[in-house]
Automatic annotation (TrEMBL):
One of its GO terms (biological process) is DNA-templated transcription. SUPFAM superfamilies: Periplasmic binding protein-like II, Winged helix' DNA-binding domain. This is LysR family transcriptional regulator. Keywords: DNA-binding, Transcription, Transcription regulation. PROSITE patterns: HTH_LYSR. GO terms for molecular function: DNA-binding transcription factor activity; sequence-specific DNA binding. The lineage of its organism: Bacteria, Pseudomonadati, Pseudomonadota, Gammaproteobacteria, Pseudomonadales. The keyword Lipoprotein does not apply. InterPro entries: LysR-type_TF_proteobact-type, LysR_HTH_N, LysR_subst-bd, WH-like_DNA-bd_sf, WH_DNA-bd_sf. Residues 1-59 form the HTH lysR-type domain. Belongs to the LysR transcriptional regulatory family.
């Protein structure tokens, strides 16, 4: 039997005081109500009601069962309302994962999101790998992956990533400013050890492709550390544009070969495909889709400002 339905019908019988009134309120026949209560008693192997022609009276077992049923039905109704509202009101824990550099970049956006949706608790995990959201329980993974790891995932485009060549002003004063990609062969090139980024720097222009593979000089797996090494004058590096923007703005690095953008790829928010998408996931992805390009635009204005480029005349002026 449907125990839950039996409990609801039985409680309604007690609340209305008769089988007939309960049937009317539930849009059932009196016979259906009587049968459901009898089946519930049979299922429980206990009499819940004393029936007379004039009134209904609870048995001792019925009194205890009534209290339990009301508690259970209240909890079920609350759980149902909460589940139904999950796609309407953002609340609860939102588990996010991002690659380290990009995650640091979006943390201010998370703060702004939380101001708008204070009932959402953010749990952000940063690492140098892309997890499987389904296996590791992540609600949203922000990644540069070109292919979806699972057909059950949705990929929401958030923008485009590219990298730029940078070096410290003092390093360039000592070693000169590269004018062409092939000039980099005469420089100490620092390498980012990350499976997402290829080992080879490939420059494309009207003359074709110019490929350069950094030597075994300095290698690190976090772009922010690579930027610090370049700022210390260790050599020329290739940085994601959103990592390069701040040291360029502060004058700690200069953009080398500003006509080139390398390692272009899309940025995506990956999340499980669901018929009824949780409101906290939907609002976060929508927020990120709107705000991340704006944040990137600020960084790109720095990169495209000639004041932050390394050109011989510019270096002479800085001296």
């Amino acid at each position: 039997m449907d125990t839950l339905q039996g409990m609801r019908v039985w409680v309604r019988v007690i609340e209305t005081g008769s089988f007939t009134a309960a049937a009317r309120s539930l849009d059932l026949s009196t016979a259906q109500v009587s049968r459901l209560v009898s089946e519930l008693e049979q299922h429980l192997q206990a009499r819940l009601l004393h029936r007379t022609t004039r009134r209904l009276a609870l048995t001792e077992a019925g009194e205890r069962y009534l209290q339990r049923c009301r508690q259970i039905l209240t909890q079920i109704d609350e759980a149902t309302a909460e589940a139904r509202g999950a796609h309407l009101t953002p609340s609860g824990r939102l588990r996010l994962h991002s690659l380290t550099g990009l995650g640091l970049h979006i943390t201010p956006l998370i703060a702004r999101y939380c101001e708008t949706y204070p009932q959402v608790v953010i749990e952000l995990t940063l690492s140098q790998r892309n997890p499987d959201p389904l296996e590791e329980g992540q609600d949203v993974v922000i990644t540069f992956a070109r292919e979806l790891p699972d057909s059950q995932l949705v990929a929401q485009p958030l923008g485009q990533l590219y990298s730029v060549v940078c070096a410290a002003p003092e390093y360039l004063r000592r070693h000169g400013v590269p004018q062409r990609p092939d000039d980099l062969r005469q420089h100490r090139c620092l390498r980012l050890l990350d499976p997402i980024y290829p080992d080879t720097w490939t420059f494309r222009d009207a003359e074709g492709e110019h490929a350069l593979q950094p030597g075994q000089t300095f290698q690190v797996n976090v772009a922010e550390s690579l930027a610090k090494a370049a700022q210390a004058g260790m050599g020329v590096c290739l940085l994601p544009f959103f990592v390069a923007a701040e040291p360029l703005r502060e004058g700690k690095l200069l953009r080398v070969l500003p006509g080139y953008r390398l390692q272009k790829r899309g940025i995506f928010a990956l999340y499980p495909s669901r018929l009824f998408l949780d409101a906290k996931i939907k609002t976060w992805v929508d927020f990120l889709r709107d705000e991340l390009p704006r944040a990137f635009a600020e960084d790109e204005r720095v990169l495209e400002n000639p004041a932050h480029w390394a050109v011989p005349d510019g270096l002479l002026q800085r001296e």
